[in-house]
Amino acid sequence: MEARRGLPLFRLLLLALGGLLWPTAGAEGGDPPAVGPPPADELLAAGTEAYARGDWSAVILHMEKALRAREAYRARLAHCRRRCAHLNRTEGAGWPSDRSPPAPTSPGRGRPVDNLRFFGQLLQRAGCLRRCLPDADTRYQLGEETELEFAKRTPYNYLQVAYFKINKLDKAVAAANTFFVANPDHMEMRQNLEYYQMMAGVKDSDFVDLEAKPHMEEFRLGVSYYTEEDSQEAVVHLEKALEEYWAADTQCRALCEGAYDYEGYNYLEYTADLYQAIVDHYTQVLGCKQGCATELASQAGRDKPIEDFLPSHFNYLQFAYYNSGLYEKAIECAKTYLLFFPNDEVMNQNLAYYSAVLGEDLAKPIRPREEVEIYRQRSLLEKELLFFAYDTFGIPFVDPDTWTPAEVIPKRLREKQKVERETAARISEEIGNLMKEIETLVEEKTKESSDLSVLVREGGPLLYDGLTVAMNSKLLNGSQRVVVDGLLSGDECRALQRLTNAAASAGDGYRGKTSPHTPSETFYGVTVYKALKLGQEGKVPLESAYLYYNVTEKVRRLVESYFRLDVPLHFSYSHLVCRTAIEGKVDPSHPVHVDNCILNAEALICIKEPPAYTFRDYSAILYLNGDFEGGAFYFTELDAKTVTAEVQPQCGRAVAFSAGSENPHGVKAVTKGQRCAIALWFTLDPRHSERERVQASDLVQMLFHTEERELPPEQAPVEERGMSVGPTEAPGTNAAAGKDEL
């Protein structure tokens, strides 16, 4: 109970404890700017409510204010802590009253007075903080969940929708890009950005990161100029990066001096005595301050920080200064780098060379940068304390730096860490082997279940008159495969061929590469939306463009029905293409591949991860002609060599199949003539539906006055489903995405 009664006093004392022994350099005078109500969490909640009711102006007002309020409070907090640390140093040890403590009468009695001086200094600093940050400021402190929302940049998700709704595209793009930088796996935002890129009036300069760290931006620019061998500009930006780094480091360390985090323990049962409480809190603060090196080296959306971030500045600078003929600066930066890595062979050679060129007498007095010497000394002292606490009290500490000398770590702890690393490596290897065995068993069971499911589920109705199954999975020696004839008449095939030759662009869909898959042929293509737009403008027959739109929808429904899918298919990409043979070339028209994973034929595996289109579930090719030589479609085993089936193209024939590793496929070389077809990829995930398809549906409705059918629940826009947690709505989507145009 005594410890509990004493704890509030030490909370007051410990507010001032962090940074007392090794305070940060520099301080700002004057009173900090006031932070006005309301706090950031209330503004965030108000913005979310405004989003739910569709009040876009209010969303923007509250979310922008929330971002500013949080930043203002953090700046005020850091300012007060730096200011009080500065006053504490400049005014001496001090005493809470005008009366100084009595001088010791003998050497043996000096220690209690020294302790009182130490705690007197803490009381003064805590009093300064109380005056700078009155009790009312506690309402601006954010909870853990709210801080996480700001860390994930959630307000920008709301802002991009709100700005789009009021047609402020530049701000919508900036907000979307800012959110996406920190959330690169957010597929809806990726699609939003792709949509924005196609919109008129959107500039490349709109795609900015509004939360970019100044020191990181300057560092990136400096490295860029360094790579381009523009040494003078590299120096300017790298020096600016260091200036911003020190400012960010000072703020980061100041923000570490907060309340004690009980880390899941019940604070009511916390019974540490006086010095244990100080140790617990102070080591937590020091650990946070050491973590600033990682925080400042981290980039939003990246898993790992830049290794040796601060030292690398001086690595770039020493060579940039050398290239600029500034040998004194080159020597200074080389010596600064060697503070971190004194045994670096290359840097020592560089230093010796610079010194020889400048002259040993002139080079010897040049010292490393003073602020870095202070930084390194302070960091090593902090590490010693943290390693001691780890060794003595078992308080964990993971060193964020690779440059820490081994002698800083206690010998017993070094041996313990070595054993732990070896044990962890062994356990990790055993777990990895076990997981591989489990994955193999699961794959085998899944394949068995899949094979049974395929046998039962294939063979659904063809939906349209005149269609016939030419080959099923059994005849094609695989699973989830079918060849259907009769989708187009001869006249329709010729009309679509003429459309391709009139509307297609060389290398369309492949950044203008006229031979994207093989140098043996030229490649021309056109998307549905582009064809319809050209038809609207009278540059191609509108009926042909409409036929293109309709027949792709026909294939989608056919695939959905034949494979008896429980959920609707969505277009992932549609492309009408013609490949023309280049005489004398015999390379494959399209090498063997799998549509949703990366095929490793030698290892007989297919890795389902980017850059593969992992979201694609089914594929289809609708042929427009057969009057050419070569160009046959074929399936293979995973080895990409063993051909299991071959399909000869002809007008109105479609080959459809699941897009996974069960269906590796390729196209043989077109040796003579022109091969035309519509390539279609489908997804079961509506989040990956093709943007241009939405635009095409809107255009078809406008041109042909087709009626909308009611959207099924899974296709309704997010707002209509009443979701208000976060704006996953993608700009440009609307009810047209679900229309039936056939």
TrEMBL record:
Question: Which biological processes are named by the entry's GO terms?
Answer: collagen metabolic process
Residues passing through the membrane, by range: none
Report domain Fe2OG dioxygenase positions: 574-684
Annotated region Disordered: where? 91-111, 707-742
Pfam family, any one: TPR_leprecan
Q: What InterPro entries does the entry give?
A: Leprecan_dom, Oxoglu/Fe-dep_dioxygenase_dom, P3H, Pro_4_hyd_alph, Pro_4_hyd_alph_FE2OG_OXY, TPR-like_helical_dom_sf
**Which keywords are on file for this protein?**
Dioxygenase, Endoplasmic reticulum, Glycoprotein, Iron, Metal-binding, Oxidoreductase, Repeat, Signal, TPR repeat, Vitamin C
Q: Which GO terms describe its cellular component?
A: endoplasmic reticulum
Record GO terms (molecular function): iron ion binding; L-ascorbic acid binding; procollagen-proline 3-dioxygenase activity
Q: Which cofactor does it need?
A: L-ascorbate; Fe cation
Q: Which domain of life is it from?
A: Eukaryota
Q: Which range is the signal sequence, renumbered to this chain?
A: 1-27
Basic and acidic residues: bias regions: 707-722
Q: Which SMART domains match?
A: P4Hc (SM00702)
What is stated as this protein's family in its record? Belongs to the leprecan family.
- Under which name does UniProt file this protein? procollagen-proline 3-dioxygenase
Give the organism the record lists.
Answer: Phrynocephalus forsythii
Which classification does the entry list for the species? Eukaryota, Metazoa, Chordata, Craniata, Vertebrata
